[in-house]
Amino acid sequence: MQEFNQFINGKFVKSTSTEVIEILNPCTEEVLSLMPKGSVEDANLALDAAKASQHAWKSLPAIERGNYLNKMANIIRENRIFLAETLAAEQAKVMSLAQVEIDVTADYFDYYAGFARRIEGEIIQSDRSKEHIFLHKAPIGVAVGILPWNFPFFVMARKVAGSLITGNTCVINPSSIAPNTVMEFAKLIESIKLPAGVLNYVCGKGSIVGNALSKSPITGIISLTGSVGAGQMVMQAASENITKVSLELGGKAPAIVCADANLELAVNAVVTSRITFSGQVCNCAERLYIEESIHDQFLDMVAKKMKTIKVEDAFSDNNPDMSALVSKDQLDKVSEMVEYAKKEGAEVIVGGSGMSQFNKGYFYQPTLLTNVKQDMQIIQEEVFGPVLPVMKFGTLDEAIALANDCEFGLTSSIFSENFNKVMYAAEELQYGETYINREHFEAIQGFHAGWKKSGIGGADGKHGMEEYLQTKVVYAQYR
């Protein structure tokens, strides 16, 4: 069994806490590793190390910082199978998807390394003669990244790559449910001789370690991916020092299917979106609105597709579509929400319960619900499981109003062959991202950002990099 230590100031050290957290395989419930529970002292040691190394790190030419990111990408590719297997074991992420996450993470480090020559300022015309106004982009200082359990490795890169290329140093708090892949990466980067203190990993509960990192006056920016509740706690902790926050929080993504859509394309996209990683993806379709004239036909198509979904152990040779949920708590939450929907009058078309054929593990059936109403919990609150509630609509404006009637605003989608219709919807939908005639999944060169309670700031692309920069203006008078 693996037992991890904290990675602080370029070396692995014992936690000052003697308590540990057991990390389980969600398919078998076996203990995979022991993670330090972490302490406030651990968090402060990591912040001190990051602060001490930041001036030297920002003083390195950006191209040299980028070279370290390229080395990280290379190490990931050299160990891609090992890392994918580690990820699949700790999360019940099917191997094909685990491999995608590992490979895209390597690409992400390379992509951000390319910004070394593209961090730009401006020269602004002055109102005075013989004066220039220089606008510089400068690192914020010490960046803190708090990771989720659903895509821990990729999101780690989102926070580390943006921080380091811009001259910040970084402290990462891995998820206490799925830290293994991230901590194995910490072992691998020892070989690239990254300067001590530039990148630190402190395991432990968000309520202890994450809170300490967020409250510290050393921290310059906190980037969290997690629940709305976690985001609120980070904002509260950050408020004392007016620390910048960048938050990617929950979602309740609507998918609108119009009568003039390519129905085969739409059903494949919607179902794929819903069952990817067993529905535990914040930006994937969580509710489905179907135009009245095709409602029965499309619902039948979705039901048939859902019934073909293969659910097995993440390491199965049968290439399953999905596997177990990540934890017993997650299984209980999904089960309770579906049972409550039934009590409110929802009708189960497919699934609707756990999977008793598995002796162990946290498996739940792909589930399709109809006869739901807009004010039901199953429509308004994030399920984070393989559950898809369905409603019908009459006009496109009605569909848009239903889609916008939600406290979240991360992603949305619409399916139609009418260009004017989809462009109108994209303009009116109150979401950071809208996908047209495709599944919900973002690109590293885009900008992944939520509206409303889905977050503040964002990640990916040029604009994601700029989250880690602040502006300095110099007024230069000369004779």
The pLDDT mean sits at: 95
Rg result = 23 Å
- Give the N-terminus to C-terminus distance in angstroms: 70 Å
- Residue ranges: pLDDT <50 for 5 or more in a row? none
Class per helix and strand makeup? alpha/beta
DSSP summary, beta strand count? 23
- Outline: globular
The number of distinct helices, counting runs of at least 4 residues, comes to 15
User: Could you give the order of strands across the largest sheet?
Assistant: 15-16-17-14-13-19-20
Instruction: State the helical fraction.
Output: 25-40%
> Approximately how much beta-strand content do the residues carry?
15-25%
Largest sheet: 7 strands, mixed
In short:
This protein has 479 residues and is α/β, with parallel strands linked by helices. The protein has 15 helices and 23 strands. Strands 15-16-17-14-13-19-20 form a seven-stranded mixed β-sheet, with helices on both faces. Strands 10-9-8-11-12-22 form a six-stranded mixed β-sheet, with helices on both faces.
